[in-house]
Every structure is written in C-alpha cells, then in structure tokens.
Write a structure and sequence with these properties.
This protein has a domain at 34-111: Jelly Rolls (Sandwich), CATH 2.60.120. It is built from one helix and ten strands. It has one helix at 3-6; strands spanning 30-39, 44-45, 48-49, 53-60, 62-67, 73-76, 80-83, 89-94, 101-110, 117-118. The longest helix is centred in the first third of the chain and has 4 residues, at 3-6.
Length: 120
C-alpha cells in the first residue's frame, strides 16, 4: 500500500549541509535578521564588516567571497559560508558576468546595531 493510501506521510530526508564552530558569544539582547542580496551580472559589494555573526546561503548562481585572511572562494547555489564578528569581507561579488546571483544572509547582531559597516 502506498504511503498516501495508508494515511501516513513519508518522512523527510534530513542531511547536514553546513557545520562551523562558533565563537564564544553571549547572545542576550541580540536579534536575527534575514537579508536577501541580489547581484546582477558582474555586480559586487564593497569591502565591509558585520558586527555579529553572518551565515550566508547561496540561492542562485555563483558568489565570489573572501573573508579575512582566507582564500577567495566561489560558492554555488546550495553552498554556505560564515563570517564571525568584525571579520573583513574583502570580496563579495557575482562570479558571473552574464547570469544573476542571489544569497540569503542570516545576521545575528545586538539589537539596534547596524548590520553592515563599509570599509574605506
């Protein structure tokens, strides 16, 4: 008998797609904000920092990113990366000059803090 006919729903498939150790933080008085960042072909963001934790998930296309002293990397749809507080996000751009790219950023910050600080 098929699951639908028996009245029981099939269990969802669950698999970890990202794991990263976190810094020692007290999150009292913090909030979570989700931001969708859309890059047109060839577009980029200027260098910046975030005061809290930022977890990014690529929704569409490919994103080039360089955080602190790490290597510049390309992340594709379904991949994730993390920025810990005040790390320099030196490169953040669409890896394609012909296709759009989008990412979802979850920012954990102290309530009322600016989400991003440009680096000059």
């Amino acid at each position: 008998m098929a699951d639908g006919a028996s009245g029981q729903a099939a269990a969802p498939s669950v698999r970890p797609v990202f794991q990263h150790d976190l810094p020692d933080l007290n999150l009292s008085g913090w909030s979570a904000t989700a931001v969708e960042v859309s890059y047109g072909p060839g577009e980029a963001s200027g260098a910046h920092r975030h005061p809290g934790l930022t977890i990014a998930y690529v929704l569409e296309g490919s994103i080039r990113s360089k955080v602190d002293d790490g290597p510049e990397q390309t992340y594709t749809a379904g991949q994730m990366f993390i920025e810990t507080p005040e790390q320099l996000h030196a490169v953040s751009r669409n890896a394609s000059s012909t296709e759009p790219a989008r990412l979802l950023a979850i920012l954990l910050t102290k309530k009322g803090a600016a989400l991003t600080t440009p680096v000059k």
